[in-house]
Amino acid sequence: MLTKNLRCEYRANPLGIDVTRPRLSWVLTSDRRGQKQSAYQLLVASSVEKLDPDACDLWDSGKVESEQSIQVAYAGAKLRSGLRCWWKVRVWDKDGSPTAWSEPASWSMGLLEDSDWHAKWIGTADPTDDAAPAAKPDEHRRLPARMLRRDFDVAGRVKQATAFVCGLGYYEMHLNGRKVGDHVLDPGLTHYAKRALYVTYDVTDQMRQGANAIGVILGNGRFFAPRLEVPIKTRSYGLPRLLLQIRIELDDGMVLDVVSDDTWKLTTDGPIRANNDYDGEEYDATMDQHGWSEPGFDDSDWEGARFVDAPGGELIAQVAEPIRVTETIKPVSMTTPQPGVHVFDMGRNMVGWCRLTVKGPRGTRVSLRHAESLKKDGTLYVDNLRSCEATDTYVLGGKGEETWEPRFTYHGFRYVELCGFPGEPALSTIAGRVVHTSAEPAGSFQCSDKLLNRIHENIIWGVKGNLRSIPTDCPQRDERHGWLGDIAVQAKAEMYDFNVAQFFSKWLNDIQDAQDEKGELPDVAPPYWDVYTSNVTWPSAYCIIPRWLHEHYADTRAIESHYDGMCMWLNFLGGFLQDGIITKDQYGDWCVPPESPDLIHSEDPSRKTAGELLGTAYFYHLLRLVARFAKILDKPADAERLGRLAGETRRAFNARFFDEEKNLYDNGTQTSSVLPLAFGIVPEGHEQAVFDNLVRNILVKHDAHIATGLVGGQWLMRVLSDFGRPDVAYRLASQTTYPSWGYMIENDATTIWELWNGNTADPAMNSHNHLMLVGDLGVWFYEYLAGIRLDAERPGFKHFFLRPHLVPNMTFANASHKSLHGRIVSSWRIDGDVFHWDVVVPVNTTATAYMPAPSSEAVSESGLDLHDAEGVAFGGERDHNNVVCLELEPGAYAFAAPVTAPLALDRTG
Ligand code: BGC
User: Fold this and answer.
1) Which of ligand 1's atoms lies nearest the C-alpha of 486?
2) Mind giving me the DSSP string for 381-445?
3) What sign does the dihedral 181-183-187-188 (CA atoms) show?
């Protein structure tokens, strides 16, 4: 057995964390089936050399009899600021034999106390210039980047140099002429009045003995809001500012701090003349400050940096993965719809920016404008960007071939218009730089239906395009906010596709920071737009996402840190109860498909679900969820109280909305049946009848089409499958006529649209890159079609279920997921009359597998009779309904069985 992939707080060798009891995880591998950990020992020391039981100075856990191999909280000596901690682990296998020690891994601590910061906030300090409400919205659009620098000497050989930096809105740090690190658009977005993130870098290799220079460029980001009034009042925090501290340890033991203070120089006359997320960046290479971050640069015409106010929020370490350029893509074609106007097609909707290569006379102005689609005449369609300019401009320096890409902006686009280009551009003139939070990919999915694979791919590109240190609603127009409602369930799917544990943990903090004293939560977090509507459905993400974090990663920290906030919020919502019904709802079942694609929004009230039904159903669901959290946190009285209120809410809900005769809720929309079924509200004995009505609504009334909006869609595919009709779910998933995901693809979508019809008649609302209408389709691909499903009772995939949901005409589905315990695989195919199923159960986990087969005797494993197969035992539901239930020990298995009768039928039906 081998011990690999050591992770601290989900990350490999993270720098500058401020969690004082970091959680450690490792992955075990073995060629043998049935392997598991019976005990572990962890060593943590202040150097690699001390990673020895006799020398270990921070923590020797000793031999701990335990199967736990993920989320093991550090319990050694107190960790001080800046400390680098080395660690390794060994485990004992199921027979009590110890493995070799793992390779060492490390993490380092950030600055834990306010007093550790010797640096001061600096910037330009003209208060009349600041983001005072008096400033006109348009003045905010054109603020140049600030460049700050200082020279310093290091009198000795550098042993270790660590930089801690917070530059708001964005920073790019340079040391001795080179950019430090590979982060872009850093640090992550926060509500700066409550929290600002600093980032830690190891800069030892870039530091020199003798003369050094440090330089930082500051962009506006969302700190200095690009406009104040468009379209909702936007929060702005002030002019960009910097806090930076470098700790340099010399070989002789001396320690030197280089800090931001008033000895720094600053200029606003650098080449970045304007920058903001929405409008783009303007770069004038004739104003380049050559050598500005090298020692000895003449900065005599720069002004002195001034001390400025701190942004107000707490300084917190950025533990989540930074945004990076993750991929570079080439355009697939170029046209010239008008003289001098060249339009490149990137082949897909993407998010990031373009790298430009150009040669021409000094002062030539080249612009790149971005859009998601084209007008009939081949020029850009930009109405759906609203007030966004989405234009990057480069003024040539004129010295040979120049390559440039912006730093402090990003765009959502498929098409790029190039104007002002000297000469004839080629396809290689631009390259698309794909930019998003660099969460590690964690999953794969494929099946025999190519359309579904395309939809999954479109979802993945949508996820990437909206992973912006917060989950944004869209990446292209003048919005790009963390709308809470769009992502509550999609977050669960994202956990299969990417390791987003830190990403969502961070966003929950952003939501917490936006909670007001009454307990109210906003619809948007960070609250750059002030949208407090006393809504239930959107802010439900604050309770729903901690559940996914717990189930998926066995992470209880989100539940612990947000439990009080959740209770406060539920309490606040309780104030809107009238006769047990929640009377507040803001957006309804947002974006239900209109009856025809030509309509912008639905005009038919019978297609809409009452806000009170949505709000009350959600309130019930949340009460039960938080009651469950109360149990996890060992608060039985809370659990009892919340449970009681949930019971009363359910009774009131059914009394108000349920028609016992018709087995319908209210006006009988799909959503009005889906929510009570998904949340367990339907009175006992009526579930099947309510479900049958839902199926009838889908198949008969809507001719096998979806008719839910954002809210109902988050539970629909799972309800259909859980109640026994995965075939109906599949018909929705594989539908190509309006409204459907396939319809979007038929109309050339490479991401998911905001509106089912993509109707451009409403320019204010037709983003081509929104995730909200994905609903629970992404979850369904993994947990149902391929059949990898977590077990909420034994979270973190310590135990899980394998249960493919076979649907007509589907001949294979493969999925894999890198859980914290290791890689899980479920890969099935129908070959002739044989059903083959390859699965992998990671070491130290177990799985319950439901094999479609007429009987256990009919199943083989790697060619052996099932009864002779090692690691397989029969589960409780043996041979029930053409499904054989198997309990699997860790290992790789290859099952086969004759295709069962209903399956064979399905394949023709
Ligand atoms: C956003 C949505 C959001 C909605 C709520 C839209 O403008 O793009 O994603 O959920 O507003 O009203």
Assistant:
1) 10
2) E-GGGTT---EEEEE---SSSEEE--SS--EEEEEEEEES-SS---GGGEEEEEEEE-PPB-EEE
3) negative
Mean pLDDT confidence for 538-556: 98
| DSSP per-residue string spanning 184-251 | -SBS----TTTEEEEEEEE-GGG--SEEEEEEEEEE-TTTS-S-SSSSS-B----S-EEEEEEEEEET
The pLDDT > 70 percentage for the chain reads 97
At 253, the amino acid letter reads G
Choose the residue to mutate in 232, 473, 600, 755 for probing ligand 1, maximizing ligand atoms within 8 Å of C-beta. 473
Pocket of ligand 1, beta carbon within 6 A: 473-474, 479, 483, 485-486, 587, 590, 770, 772
* Model confidence band, residue 879 (pLDDT cutoffs 50, 70, 90): low
Please name the residue whose Cα sits nearest to atom 2 of ligand 1: 473
Active site residue 479: yes
Q: How far apart are CA 363 and CA 399, in angstroms?
A: 11
Q: Which residues, 6+ apart, have CB-to-CB distance to 865 below 8 Å?
A: none
Least confidently predicted of 179-183, 228-232, 360-364, 411-415: 228-232
pLDDT category of residue 887 using cuts at 50, 70 and 90: very high
Greatest extent of the chain over all pairs of C-alpha atoms, in Å: 87
pLDDT in tens, 154-193: 999 999 999 999 999 999 999 999 999 999 999 999 999 9
Residue whose C-alpha is closest to residue 198's, from 85, 340, 319, 73? 319
How remote is the CA of residue 125 from the centroid of ligand 1, in Å? Answer: 36
CA–CA distance, 566 with 589 (Å, rounded to integer)? 23
**What SS3 class is residue 538?**
helix
Q: What is the pTM of this model?
A: 0.97
Distance 179 CA to ligand 1 centre (A): 37
Catalytic, out of 479, 520, 551, 861? 479
253-296 pLDDT, tens digit each: 999 999 999 999 999 999 999 999 999 999 999 999 999 999 99
Whether 90 shows a pLDDT value over 80: the answer reads yes
* pLDDT the model gives residue 905: 40
Active site residue 754: yes
Q: Is residue 775 within 8 Å of 633, Cβ to Cβ?
A: no
The strand pair at 834-841 and 891-898 is best described as antiparallel
The protein residue with its alpha carbon nearest to ligand 1, atom 8, reads: 473
- SS3 state of residue 125: coil
Q: Among the listed ranges 144-153, 665-674, 806-815, 898-907, which one has the minimum average pLDDT value?
A: 898-907
Long-range contacts of 451-458 (CB under 8 A, 24+ apart): 451/734, 451/736, 451/742, 451/745, 452/733, 452/734, 452/781, 452/785, 454/745, 455/733, 455/741, 455/742, 455/745, 455/777, 456/778, 456/781, 458/741, 458/744, 458/745, 458/749, 458/750, 458/751, 458/752
Residue nearest to atom 9 of ligand 1 (CA): 473
pLDDT at 878: 57
Residue nearest to atom 11 of ligand 1 (CA): 483
Question: How far are the Cα atoms of 168, 383, 398, 410, 525 from residue 478, in angstroms, in the given order?
Answer: 20, 11, 34, 12, 16
Contact status, residue 172 vs residue 196, Cβ threshold 8 Å: no
Among the listed residues 9, 754, 783, 861, the single catalytic one is 754
CA distances from 496 to 501, 812, 816 (A): 11, 19, 9
- What is the separation, in whole angstroms, between the first and last Cα of the chain? 47
CA of 480 to the centre of ligand 1 (A): 10
541 CA → ligand 1 middle, Å = 14
Angle among Cα 499, 502, 506 to the nearest 5 degrees reads 140
User: What is the atom index within ligand 1 of the atom nearest the CA of 484?
Assistant: 10
From ligand 1's centre to the CA of 591, what distance in Å?
9
Token reading at 906: 């399905």
Which residues are 274's β-sheet partners?
282
